[in-house]
Amino acid sequence: MVKRVVTGAHYGLRDWLAQRVTAVVMVVFVIFLAAMLLISPPHDDASWKTMFSSRWMRIASFLFLVSLFWHAWVGMRNILMDYVHATGIRLTLQILIILSLVIYTVWSVEILWAMEMQWR
Amino acid sequence: METDGPGAKLQRKRPKYLNLIEIRQPLPAVISVLHRLSGVLLFFPGIPLLLYSLDVMVNSPQGYAQFQSLLTNPVLKGALVLSLWFFLHHFCAGIRYLALDLHYGDMLEQARFSSKVVLAAGIVLTLLIALLIW
Q: What CATH number does the domain containing A70 carry?
């Protein structure tokens, strides 16, 4: 009888795909942002703020940042699985990474929609 | 195992331990290691620095001027250019991996060639942007 070593809960393919989909989203955004910066380089405070004042720019930036955080999670998780073999330490680091990425997501909303938020 | 012929010669020259510093890695391996290393650095301190910069640029009244004055410091400017290289290398190497996933250029010769292109593209793009912002 073949004894299989169970290595996961079938999240391998999902993470592999997520890593690539988020990569493509980021590549599209970066090329588009680079084109914008080349066509009309922002030269003062006002032009930077105008660039991020449109709703679609904020949504596109947020989509980029969320892709970045998700991409970072898959990458960091893979690296921890490769190099940190002590389960306790690995789990602690993974929790710290997830927590930081959740905080970054909230922070991103605050940054991008700060002008609309009265409480800030 | 055979005791003479090409096999024996190979056996005798085998390294007895894996010293990553002494082994001359092929370029695709170097690209891969740099992809990993740049990935970790982009996670930390990359992401918090990016968010902090975005916050200052977009929300601080004098954000842009603050950044310009920071960049008069050559050390900070150098750090920015180095970060830019980490990002651009990760970016270019990532596009190469996406292509490899789709089986574009996954033959040995092509893969070796594209790894040279990736290393060069990362450095050239970094230098171009460095020239633009200097």
A: 1.20.1300.10
Alpha-carbon distance A32 to nearest alpha carbon in chain B (angstroms): 14
Q: Is residue A10 part of a domain?
A: no
- Examine the pLDDT at B3 and tell me if it is beyond 90: no
The answer on pLDDT for A107 being more than 90 is: yes
Angle between helix A55-83 and B27-41 (nearest 10):
120
pLDDT at B14: 67
Q: Which residue of A has its CA nearest to B55?
A: A111
Complex ipTM: 0.88
Among the partner residues A27, A107, A115, nearest to B95 by beta-carbon distance: A27
Question: How many separate domains does chain A show?
Answer: 1
Output b/e per residue, A45-78; b: 16+ Cβ within 10 A: beebbebbeeeeebebbbebbbbbbbbbbbbbbe
- Give the number of domains in chain B: 1
Look at residue A67 and tell me if it is in a domain. Answer: yes
| Nearest-CB residue to B59 (from A44, A104, A111) | A111
Domain presence at residue A3:
no
For chain B, the average pLDDT equals: 88
Residue type, A25: V
